[in-house]
# Entry
Amino acid sequence: MFNVLIATRFAWTIASVFGVSGLLHFAGLALIKRAYANWDFAPGFYRVAGAMQLLAAFFLALPITRIWGVMPAGFVTFATVVILLNNRQYVYSVPGLIMLAALVPAALANPV
# Structure
């Protein structure tokens, strides 16, 4: 039997990870700017990624919009994993794959 309480905690944990990551992107740390520049992204694209992550965090935190939070979270995480694999940073893509797997129970935590 699937426990909704455990899935809800998964969703809150994932929401906090996306929230912290989104805030770090918006802060514009030199490390993040350098990574986006090395991968040939536009100069302000890190803010777009941060906005998507904050949107996903907000939606994941609320039970009524949780399924809507899984969608941008899955999109951002999948795109991140693809970019990391494309740049041959295989070890760094493993946490993203774990995050994608953790989104499944978070999607099932929708109480509606």
